[in-house]
Amino acid sequence: MTTHHIELTRESVIGSFTAEIKPILSIESGDTIRFKTLDAGWGNGGSYKERTRPFTRRADIDNGHALIGPIYIPSAKKGMTLEVEIKHLKTGSYGWTSAGQYPNWQNQMLHLTEFKEITLDWKLDHTANQGICDINGRSFTVTLNPFLGVLGMPPEETGIHSTSPPRFCGGNIDCKELIVGSKLYLPISIDGAYFSVGDGHATQGDGEVCGQAIECPMEEAELTLTVRDDIELTKPRAYTPAGWITFGFAEDLNEATVQALDGMLTLLGELYGLNRVEAMALGSSVIDLRITQIVNGVKGVHALLPHDALK
């Protein structure tokens, strides 16, 4: 298998999912890609002087997160599954989080309109695994838990597709469980895959309640992409250090919950030979339902089956 090094250049960054431009790279199933990323805001977030110089955006295809891609895999065919193994992540030296800027239902219900917008500047220390910010002269420290918020493919062969929502074929999943050591399984939506990735997060709480995590560039990232013709999925699932995960995505949080639970019942059947009623009864004791995020228009819920839950 081959390891490909992708330089962070204007040509390697895109702000949408699409199969209508020439891929930046063609790889074989099982190959590894190593790359850097801008932060989701194309290097414009925060005020640190060491931030990466932002690139000029193209009006037609760069309206979303700054992603690396698209990456073409000739053996990837629609209906197969793409295994994305997350092998290494190292944050950049800075991060940022903004709040109060969106005139949305959360701000209105939480009475945030009385406050002005703020942006927290985070100093990230990969060696110490911590981030530090200052609010009104007080220092706050958090433990880092880096992951990539956006991993996915275009949902259709034609068109320019937004990076904002999560979809059946991936996208803006924003799941904090997808750390190093995880394998994300995505239904392949188009021949060739046209996979793109980015949106580095230094850490995030379930829900991503203000609309952003600690947004950051990734100084180092390494993924192995493998085409699987032995797994048939209609929604993403993941094998993570915490356990198996199944996802649900919908504008309605209840519907997203049903989708995540439906995927977990199917998985319990595969793992343990249970029918759906048996899986529901047993699962009530061991399945954790978590709100992935509530801020991307399409909301996310993930069901978690911890590794040690069933013996």
UniProtKB/TrEMBL annotation:
Q: From which residue to which does the signal peptide run?
A: none
Q: Tell me where on the tree of life, at the top rank, the source sits.
A: Bacteria
Q: Which Pfam families match?
A: FmdA_AmdA
> Which chain regions cross the lipid bilayer?
none
Name of protein: Acetamidase/formamidase
Q: What is the lineage of its organism?
A: Bacteria, Bacillati, Bacillota, Bacilli, Bacillales
